[in-house]
Design the sequence.
C-alpha cells in the first residue's frame, strides 16, 4: 500500500508525498481537484484519490507533463472512477503514450510492436507553446520545457506554483543516478535557464518534491552534462566508435550493472550526446562496411 500524503505548498496548490510528486490543485468554490500527472499505477492513483476525497473534492482534470509511463499510469483508474475527467497532454506526449515502442526504438532495443498497446484516455490536446490554460475557469498556464523527452511541458497554478515534471531532477536522483535522461541537450539547457528565470513561488519536481529555488540544482545538472559531453567526445576522439561501443564504454565508466534497464537508459542518453556533438560539428557519422561509426572531426579541417 502506498503511503501518500497531500502536502500543502501555497494557496490551493499541493503535491503528493512519496516517490512521485503528483501535483494537486484543490479549487474551493467548485470542490474540484486538478492533478498534474497521475502517478505510476492504479495503486498509487487509489491512494491519491483517497487523500483528495477525504478533503471533499472530486478529480475533474489531469494535466500531463510528458508521456512516460510513471506519469500517466494512474489515468485508467481515474477515468473509471470519474468518467467525466478531462485529460490533457501535448500531441508529442500522446504519441509517446500511444506507442510505448517509440521508447524502445530510441533506446536501440528491439521494439515489440503492438504488444500491450491501448489508447490513452487523453481528451484535450495542448499546443506546445506558453500560454493560458483555463480549466473550468481556473487559470492555469502551460510552460514549454523541452529537453527531457519530446512534448514536455510544465504547468503553473493560479498560486504561481510551477509543476515542472522531469525538466529537472531532485537531489535524491542526482545522488542515486550518474546519468540523467535528456534527449535534447541544447533544449534542456535552454529549459534550465527558463526555469531559473520563471521565479515561481515554488517548483514541484516530479522526482524530487518541492524546491523554492533551483539554481543550485541546475548547476549540478549542467556540471553533469558538460562532463558527459567531454567524456563521449574524448572516447570518439581516441578512435572511431559505434553507438554500441560507446554505450559499453559509458556503462563501464559509471560501473553500471548489466541489465536491460541500465542499458536502455544509457543507450538513450548516449544518443542524445552523440546528436549534440554532431550538431556542434565536433564529430561526424560515417558508415564503413555496413557499420555506423562516429569519428572526431578536427577543427578547421576544411569541411
Ligand atoms: Zn520522464
Sequence:
Amino acid at each position: 500500500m502506498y503511503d501518500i500524503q497531500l502536502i500543502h505548498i501555497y494557496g490551493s496548490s499541493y503535491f503528493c508525498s512519496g516517490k512521485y510528486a503528483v501535483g494537486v490543485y484543490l479549487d474551493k468554490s467548485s470542490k474540484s481537484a486538478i492533478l498534474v500527472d497521475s502517478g505510476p499505477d492504479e495503486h498509487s492513483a487509489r491512494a491519491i484519490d483517497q487523500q483528495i476525497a477525504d478533503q471533499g473534492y472530486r478529480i475533474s482534470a489531469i494535466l500531463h507533463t510528458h508521456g512516460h509511463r510513471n506519469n500517466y499510469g494512474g489515468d485508467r483508474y481515474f477515468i473509471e472512477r470519474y468518467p467525466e475527467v478531462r485529460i490533457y497532454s501535448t500531441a508529442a506526449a500522446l504519441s509517446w503514450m500511444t506507442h510505448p515502442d517509440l521508447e524502445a526504438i530510441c533506446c536501440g532495443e528491439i521494439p515489440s510492436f503492438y504488444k500491450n498497446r491501448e489508447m490513452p484516455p487523453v481528451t484535450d490536446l495542448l499546443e506546445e507553446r506558453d500560454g493560458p490554460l483555463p480549466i473550468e475557469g481556473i487559470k492555469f498556464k502551460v510552460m514549454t520545457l523541452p529537453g527531457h523527452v519530446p512534448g514536455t511541458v510544465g504547468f503553473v497554478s493560479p498560486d504561481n506554483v510551477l509543476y515542472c515534471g522531469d525538466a529537472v531532477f531532485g537531489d535524491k536522483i542526482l545522488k542515486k543516478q550518474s546519468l540523467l535522461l535528456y534527449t535534447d541537450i541544447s533544449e534542456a539547457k535552454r529549459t534550465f535557464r527558463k526555469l531559473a528565470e520563471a521565479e515561481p513561488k515554488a517548483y514541484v519536481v516530479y522526482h524530487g518534491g518541492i524546491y523554492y529555488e533551483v539554481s543550485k540544482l541546475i548547476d549540478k545538472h549542467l556540471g553533469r552534462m558538460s562532463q558527459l559531453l567531454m567524456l563521449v567526445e574524448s572516447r570518439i576522439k581516441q578512435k572511431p566508435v559505434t553507438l554500441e561501443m560507446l554505450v559499453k564504454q559509458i556503462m563501464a565508466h559509471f560501473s553500471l550493472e548489466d541489465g536491460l534497464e541500465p542499458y536502455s537508459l544509457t543507450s538513450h542518453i548516449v544518443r542524445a550526446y552523440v546528436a549534440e556533438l554532431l550538431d556542434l560539428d565536433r564529430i561526424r557519422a560515417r558508415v564503413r562496411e555496413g557499420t555506423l561509426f562516429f569519428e572526431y572531426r578536427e577543427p578547421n579541417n576544411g569541411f
